[in-house]
């Protein structure tokens, strides 16, 4: 009960200090505010980006290996000359992989080009065409907003039907729903019927496969419009979640070497890529942002700590008489120390709260203009409070000890 009373009195004293010495307290707390703002804004942005990237990578294909000609690399000196003469992945190789790895969960083949889509004199250029096999939707989990996805017979016969991205449908037809079951011209000379509209995805942080600006086509139909070897072909292999991704990679590697009849000692002539590459590529960026954020915050908090300490030294001097009276009537040292430490902590928390409020406003602005939602995680709010408490203790400990060690008689006389 006594501690609660001391806490309440310290809180009131902190508010009183804020009211009576507005400019001095504001300037002193500015460092705390800016320090909390710096570190929380950086940590919140990174946490939001990581969540958005994780969600997007999962939508691209979690636990999926992509078999293709090229290999992903973070090396600034990309050895393209090693891969340029490699053969492209083939549909026939996917069927052989299916026979060699019957335990694999799903497997699909995809080719892609960029071309035009036309309707009624209106044309959109730079549209991504994805020609896919029947298991593609099992790996990518395409969400159909209107209409339907392909039937099995449409994959096998290569019928001229397409599933269209929301933005393309909206821009060509005014309203996405108007595109359903309408005819469009592909590459300027082939007619196709729109049987489905992909649900709107919005902005993408990675922009890997932008389905809003794409059309999905049965593989055998797109093969009629382009040559497979010039259409960036790849095989998508999705393993069971219980199978480690490295084990899946090794199994695919052995099977592909067998399919391509590579002798022992020969280098692989195919690339095995997975979405983990993106995470590894972004880790140095996140680390750099973290270091920068903490460096700015540390400097600001260091300045703010001395500002709060200055307030507390002035407060001890102004309350010398009160301290003497309290000690004269039996107040213990620990009570005096607790009172001033808590006041210092509350001042830091007030400064930190202003910084958190500024970050919250910033998250609303960023969420409106960026391709992902920015938010402040609960654990980061707890971290901000913990930092404020720590800085408050550091700033208040010496003034609190000075107050606790005062001689009550001398303290009372110094006021008179």
Per DSSP, the total helix count is 14
Radius of gyration: 32 Å
Domain unit count: 2
Head-to-tail CA distance between termini: 33 Å
Share of β-strand residues = 15-25%
Task: Note the main sheet.
Answer: 6 strands, mixed, barrel
Tell me the structural class: alpha+beta
| Biggest sheet, spatial arrangement of strands | 2-3-8-5-7-6
**Percent helix among the residues?**
55-70%
Q: Please state the overall shape, judged from the principal axes of the Cα atoms.
A: elongated
By DSSP, the count of extended strands is 10
Order of helices and strands: HHEHHEEHEHEHEEEHEHEHHHHH
Poorly predicted residue ranges: none
Description:
It is built from 14 helices and ten strands. By secondary structure, the protein is α+β, with helices and mostly antiparallel strands. The protein has two domains: about 190 residues, no CATH class; about 210 residues, no CATH class. The protein has a six-stranded mixed barrel with strand order 2-3-8-5-7-6. Helix 1 packs across helix 2, helix 2 packs antiparallel against helix 10 and helix 10 packs parallel to helix 13. The protein is elongated, with a radius of gyration of 32 Å. The mean pLDDT is about 85.
């Amino acid at each position: 009960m006594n501690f609660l009373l001391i806490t309440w009195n310290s809180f009131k004293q902190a508010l009183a200090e804020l009211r009576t010495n507005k400019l001095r307290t504001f300037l002193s707390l500015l460092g705390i505010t800016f320090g909390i703002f710096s570190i929380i804004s950086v940590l919140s942005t990174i946490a939001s980006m990581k969540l958005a990237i994780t969600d997007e990578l999962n939508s691209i294909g979690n636990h999926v290996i992509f078999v293709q000609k090229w290999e992903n690399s973070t090396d600034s000196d990309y050895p393209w000359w090693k891969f340029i003469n490699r053969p492209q992945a083939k549909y026939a190789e996917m069927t052989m992989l299916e026979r060699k790895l019957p335990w694999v969960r799903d497997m699909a083949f995809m080719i892609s080009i960029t071309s035009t889509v036309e309707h009624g004199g209106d044309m959109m250029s730079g549209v991504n065409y994805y020609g896919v096999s029947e298991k593609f939707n099992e790996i990518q989990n395409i969400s159909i907003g209107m209409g339907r996805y392909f039937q099995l017979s449409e994959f096998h016969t290569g019928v001229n039907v397409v599933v269209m991205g929301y933005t393309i449908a909206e821009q060509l037809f005014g309203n996405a729903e108007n595109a359903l079951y309408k005819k469009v011209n592909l590459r300027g000379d082939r007619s196709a019927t729109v049987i489905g509209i992909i649900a709107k995805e919005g902005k993408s942080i990675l922009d890997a496969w932008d389905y809003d600006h794409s059309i999905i086509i049965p593989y055998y139909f797109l093969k009629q419009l382009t040559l497979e070897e010039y259409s960036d072909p790849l095989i998508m292999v999705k393993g069971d979640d219980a199978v480690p991704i490295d084990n899946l990679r090794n199994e695919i590697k052995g099977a592909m070497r067998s399919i391509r009849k590579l002798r022992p000692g020969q280098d692989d002539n195919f690339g095995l890529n997975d979405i983990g590459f993106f995470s590894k590529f972004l880790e140095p960026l996140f680390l750099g942002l973290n270091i920068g954020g903490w460096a700015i915050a540390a400097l600001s908090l260091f300045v703010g700590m001395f500002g709060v300490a200055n307030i507390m030294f002035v407060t001890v001097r102004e309350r010398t008489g009160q301290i003497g009276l309290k000690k004269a009537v039996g107040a213990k040292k620990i009570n005096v120390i607790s009172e001033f430490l808590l006041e210092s902590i509350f001042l830091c928390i007030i400064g930190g709260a202003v910084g958190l409020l500024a970050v919250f406003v910033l998250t609303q602005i960023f969420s409106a203009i960026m391709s992902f939602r920015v938010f402040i995680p609960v654990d980061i709010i707890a971290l901000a409070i913990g930092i404020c408490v720590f800085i408050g203790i550091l700033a208040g400990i010496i003034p609190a000890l000075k107050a606790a060690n005062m001689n009550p008689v001398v303290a009372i006389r110094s006021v008179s």
